[in-house]
Design a protein that fits this description.
Elements lengths: L1 E12 L5 E11 L3 E5 L6 H9 L4 E10 L2 E2 L5 H6 L2 E4 L6 E5 H15 L7 H15 L9 E2 L5 H15 L3 E5 L7 H14 L5 E5 L13 E6 L2 E6 L1 H10 L2 H9 L1
Parallel strand pairs: 3-10, 3-11, 6-9, 9-10
Antiparallel strand pairs: 1-2, 1-4, 4-5, 7-8, 11-12
Helix pairs in contact: 3-4, 4-5, 5-6
Bound molecules: adenosine-5'-diphosphate and magnesium ion (2 copies).
Length: about 260
C-alpha cells in the first residue's frame, strides 16, 4: 500500500522567491524505511517543512498525496491527525505546556479523527509510561514544559517519544541523529526499530550514515539541489560515507 507519493515537487520561499525544491519525487509504501541523504543546503529540511504545511514555502508545481489524498490541501494539524508525523531538525519549545498534556492532547486528537477511543488522564498516564520505556526516558520529562531547557539529545529522544505515543502511519524524521552521543543514538534507533512495522513507514533524513548502522533502510536516496539524483539500497549509504557526494554528481554528468 502506498502511503506517501510525492511527484515532481517544486517549491520556493514564499516571500522572497528562491527555488528550493526542483522536481522532487518519492514514493513510500507501508512497511518501508527510506533514508534521504545529501549535502547541506540541498533542501532536505525544506522538504519536511513543506510536507508539514509550513507557511514559509509555496509549492509551485507537483503533487503530494498521502494514502491517495491530496496532502497539500490539508491544514498542518489535519495532516498530523491523518497520521503523518514530522520531527524537525530543531524541535520547538512550548513553554507552559507540560510534555504529558501536550502528548495526551495530540494523542486524543488523532484518536478522535480515526474513530478510536480517547484516553482519560489516568489511562493516558499508564500508556505514556509504557511508551517511555521504548525511548529509555526518565518519567520526570513528562512534567516539564515541552522541550524547554532540554539538551539537544533530550529533545531528540522526546521526538521519538512523541512518535512512540502517536504511532503514526508515516514518520519523517529530520536529522534525529545529529548531535547524539552513541548511547542516545542507539536508543533513538531502537525506538525507531520498535515502532516500525508492516503497516507504517519511516523516512529518515540524515547527513551521516552512522544512524543507518542501527536502523536498516530499504532504500537510500541522495538529494542534491532540490531533487533526488540517485537511489539505491543500504550499500549506497556506505559508498557515500566513503566517497562523499561529489561522485554522485560526476556519475550523473557522465551518464
Ligand atoms: P538541508 O536541510 O538539506 O541542509 P535546507 O532545506 O535547510 O537544506 O535549505 C535548503 C536551501 O534553502 C538553503 O540554501 C537554505 O538557505 C534555503 N532556505 C531554506 N529556507 C529558507 C527561507 N525561509 N528563506 C531563504 N532561504 C531558505
Ligand atoms: Mg520493513
Ligand atoms: Mg536540514
Amino acid at each position: 500500500m502506498t502511503l506517501l507519493k510525492i511527484e515532481n515537487l517544486h517549491a520556493k520561499v514564499a516571500e522572497t522567491g528562491p527555488k528550493i525544491l526542483k522536481g522532487f519525487s518519492l514514493t513510500v509504501n507501508a512497511g518501508e524505511v527510506h533514508a534521504i541523504m545529501g549535502p547541506n543546503g540541498s533542501g532536505k529540511s525544506t522538504l519536511t517543512k513543506i510536507v508539514a504545511g509550513h507557511p514559509a514555502y509555496e509549492v509551485t508545481d507537483g503533487t503530494v498525496e498521502f494514502e491517495g489524498n491530496d496532502l497539500l490541501e490539508l491544514e498542518a494539524d489535519e495532516r498530523a491527525r491523518a497520521g503523518v508525523f514530522l520531527a524537525f531538525q530543531y524541535p520547538i519549545e512550548v513553554p507552559g505546556v507540560s510534555n504529558s498534556s501536550f502528548l495526551r492532547e495530540s494523542y486524543n486528537a488523532i484518536c478522535k479523527e480515526q474513530g478510536k477511543e480517547e484516553l482519560d488522564p489516568l489511562e493516558f498516564d499508564d500508556y505514556v509510561r509504557e511508551r517511555l520505556k521504548t525511548v529509555d526516558m526518565d518519567p520526570k520529562f513528562l512534567d516539564r514544559s515541552v522541550n524547554v531547557g532540554f539538551s539537544g539529545g533530550e529533545k531528540k529522544r522526546n521526538e521519538i517519544l512523541q512518535m512512540a505515543v502517536l504511532n503514526p502511519k508515516l514518520a519523517l524524521l529530520d536529522e534525529t541523529d545529529s548531535g547524539l552521543d552513541i548511547d542516545a543514538l542507539r536508543t533513538v534507533a531502537a525506538g525507531i526499530n520498535t515502532l516500525q512495522n508492516e503497516g507504517n513507514a519511516v523516512v529518515l533524513i540524515t547527513h551521516y550514515q552512522r544512524l543507518l548502522n542501527y536502523v536498516e533502510p530499504d532504500f537510500v536516496h541522495v538529494m542534491v539541489d532540490g531533487k533526488i539524483v540517485k537511489s539505491g539500497g543500504r550499500e549506497l549509504a556506505l559508498e557515500l560515507e566513503e566517497r562523499g557526494y561529489e561522485w554522485v554528481l560526476d556519475d550523473k554528468g557522465a551518464a
